Amino acid sequence: MSEKLRMGMIGGGMGAFIGAVHRKAAAMDGLIELSCGAFSNSPEKSKASGKELGLPESRVYPDFRTMIEQEKKLPADQRMHFVSIVTPNFAHFEPAMLALENGFHVVIEKPMTFTLEEARQLAAKVKETGLLLCLTHTYAGYPMVKQARYMVEQGLFGKIRKVYVEYPQGWLSELSEKEGNAQAAWRTDPTKSGKAGAMGDIGTHAAHLAEYITGQKIQKLSADIQTIVPGRALDDDGAALLRFDSGASGVLIATQVAAGEENNLSIRVYGEKGGLSWRQMEPNSLEVLWQDKPKEVYRAGQGYLSPVALHNCRTPAGHPEGYIEAFANLYRNFALTLQARLSGEEPDTTLVDFPDVEDGVRGMAFIDNIIASGKSDSKWTDFKI
């Protein structure tokens, strides 16, 4: 398929951090072009954002309902192929459901919805329509995360026994939401973010990374959830003991009040024969530990990597790749899958995998279960979906 996929965007107008990230990532491989958008709940701001992005006025809409309605009326060779939803959590479900109902594929920010019930409804709609939904768990796009997952799948470490995953940030160490920080304001507002703060924002990333690399699913958890900064409405710190369905145990930490930390997501996985360690702030290296021989360091871009890791590398070894490239890998894999479908072909899903609607349901279930456990006096809470 030679034509570019046409993307519509909901949210992400002028001044929005994550919208700009999505646009850069989507454009990186030349497979996708931004064709239309409803960039704000303010029609004036949406119009101004579209003008700034160079879109024709006729393809900039005052709201997402109008956009989906009008795009559906366009000829097939003009209308958008999919919509990217980059709004705060509370504004995910309605546009995603409307897009699916009108035949448009969806890329959506995490957490997927505001509630677990909404996530279940989206999953049912995806199954009913057969359309694609990509959930942007960015860290699943890193080449060395792909390598880690591949090595676990190949059984190189034997049975996985132990998982440690932590995501410390420090940007909410003060009551920034009361000081004009727009990102902090909606993320700490239960009417916009949902029932979880740090655990919804970054804890879901940690949980997804643990399940993605190990191939195991969280079965039980025991959580300690806290709000450290006085006056904050949602959790900003927490930890949980985990038990996985194939026998591994684990520890998950997510905090946004670790003063001085940036985005220090890291994971360690140990099996019977060895283990691995990866850090998001040094993403091109994967440390591999063995019981009976010296530690190895795998590096992005090297020919000894697995096919799936190499597919997600973009530059020769020694040229750093990072957050935008990982994001772009999700968009590229989604685009290649969609292009194959539109051409009547079967994509190689081992190479072009991306988080999907089922990951979204598990993410919302994680939020429900970890908040329930944090409020409970019982030692263990069953992970319910």
Description:
Helices cover 35% and strands 21% of the residues. The protein contains twelve helices and 14 strands. The protein has helices at residues 17-27, 43-52, 64-73, 93-101, 116-129, 143-153, 182-187, 190-193, 198-214, 307-311, 323-342, 357-375; strands at residues 5-10, 32-38, 82-85, 105-108, 133-135, 160-168, 218-226, 237-244, 249-255, 266-271, 274-279, 285-290, 296-299, 381-382. Helix 4 runs parallel beside helix 5 and helix 9 (198-214) packs across helix 12. The chain is globular and about 65 Å long. It starts with a strand and ends with a strand.
Shape: globular
- Order of strands across the main sheet: 13-12-11-10-6-9-8-7-14
Q: Decide which structural class fits the backbone.
A: alpha/beta
Q: What is the number of strand segments?
A: 14
Unreliable runs: none
Topology:
Elements: E1 5-10, H1 17-27, E2 32-38, H2 43-52, H3 64-73, E3 82-85, H4 93-101, E4 105-108, H5 116-129, E5 133-135, H6 143-153, E6 160-168, H7 182-187, H8 190-193, H9 198-214, E7 218-226, E8 237-244, E9 249-255, E10 266-271, E11 274-279, E12 285-290, E13 296-299, H10 307-311, H11 323-342, H12 357-375, E14 381-382
Parallel strand pairs: 1-2, 1-3, 3-4, 4-5, 6-9
Antiparallel strand pairs: 6-10, 7-8, 7-14, 8-9, 10-11, 11-12, 12-13
